[in-house]
Specification:
Largest sheet: 8 strands, mixed
Strand content: 15-25%
Distance between the termini: 61 Å
Number of strands: 14
Shape: globular
Structural class: alpha/beta
Radius of gyration: 21 Å
Length: 352
């Protein structure tokens, strides 16, 4: 039987990036949505022809036709809702960040493992068709050694216009709801003044860190990091002796610029990512000893491919490209990066 999908959270991202894509997939059924904003939930249900509308996620989880949920809600509420869904035996795709601390993330991954559930995190850039081409090229180049060994990498994110469409979601004037269970928005040692920047870092910059791990290796060490209170940062990750330097800058009015370049002795592979909501593929540029070639692109959207993959993962019981278990590493890295910015108290202030 086709998986019955429930969407928890029907804001702009919930509709545009998730609800629309699952509704278009004939291999699943969107059977219900839930939102604390009743007018918005009703408008989204009408737009996407969804019969069942619930006021809370717990009401939706009581629906036996729902076998999997997509969680797109306030970031601090994501963890508690996902935990409820996993404990109820539902497969989960949640937006990132999955959590704010490593301990929170581990608890979620363990809940999925206990129930043998598909638990996917919304790092949709791993599903980008251009990224898939780049990974195939990198696999070939590493195997045939045509460009020599990898000597370094750099990544960047200069956030700007997100590329969203203006006509594929509905909104109302309702206030964002209160009353949700919220998890702590940072580890115990993080001062309150740093937490808004940490939230921004996890929401925006964790994407390029996650992509670097996907391309270069799953568990890098933090070699260097400098973080501003706003969340902007410069970070160097060490992938078994290969340094990846990341420049991460807060949003601006201009175009969105984000990418990753892997340098070899005799060339490079560069991935230039589209704005987050733009329905286009990443560009891949292959540099072979100074001869630059842009690989052909087709028309697809990472969010659509992510939705389709989640359904296939459920049907075939596959491990997702960005599983909850793997994504714990992104939270651990974020903690390690930010902990370097917290002053160590003088020895006289430390308890003995």
């Amino acid at each position: 039987m086709a998986p019955g999908i429930g969407i928890i959270g029907t804001g702009m991202v919930g509709q545009m990036c998730h609800l629309a894509n699952f509704a278009a997939n004939p291999a699943c059924r969107v059977v219900a949505i839930a939102d604390l904003r009743p007018d918005l939930a009703a408008a989204a249900a009408q737009k996407f022809d969804i019969a069942r509308v619930y006021g809370t996620h717990r009401e939706l989880l009581a629906d036996s036709d729902v076998s999997a949920v997509v969680v797109v809600t306030k970031r601090r509420a994501t963890g508690p809702i996902v935990l409820d869904a996993l404990n109820s035996g539902r497969h989960v795709l949640s937006e990132k960040p999955m959590a704010y601390t490593t301990a929170q993330a581990v608890a979620l991954a363990e809940a999925a493992r206990r129930q043998n559930l598909v638990y996917s995190i919304g790092y949709m850039k791993r599903h980008d068709a251009g990224v898939a081409r780049a990974v195939a090229e990198l696999t070939r180049i590493r195997a045939d050694q045509s460009l020599g060994r990898v000597i370094g990498a750099r990544g960047w994110c200069f956030g700007g216009n997100t590329g969203r469409s203006q006509d594929n979601f509905v909104m109302t004037g309702e206030a964002r709801p209160d009353g949700l269970e919220l998890w702590q928005d940072g580890p115990y040692w993080m001062p309150g003044a740093m937490r808004p920047g940490y939230d921004h870092f996890l929401n925006v910059f964790s994407h390029i860190i996650n992509l670097a791990r996907y391309v270069l290796g799953s568990s890098p060490a933090v070699a260097q990091s400098t973080v501003e209170t706003s969340g902007a940062a410069t970070v160097t990750l060490d992938f078994d002796g290969v340094a990846c330097a990341l420049q991460l800058v807060n949003g601006a009015e201009g175009i969105w610029r984000e990418g990753l370049s892997i340098a070899f002795e005799r060339g490079a592979v560069t991935i230039e990512l589209p704005p987050p909501f733009a329905e286009q593929e990443a560009e891949v540029i292959l540099d072979q000893q100074g001869q630059r070639t842009q690989l052909p692109r087709e028309k697809s959207w990472a969010f659509r491919r992510q939705a389709d993959a989640f359904v296939t993962d459920i049907v075939e019981q596959r491990t997702p490209l960005a599983s909850g278990e793997d994504s714990v590493v992104d939270i651990a890295l974020a903690e390690a990066i930010w902990k370097r910015q917290v002053p160590v108290p003088p020895a006289s202030d430390l308890s003995v």
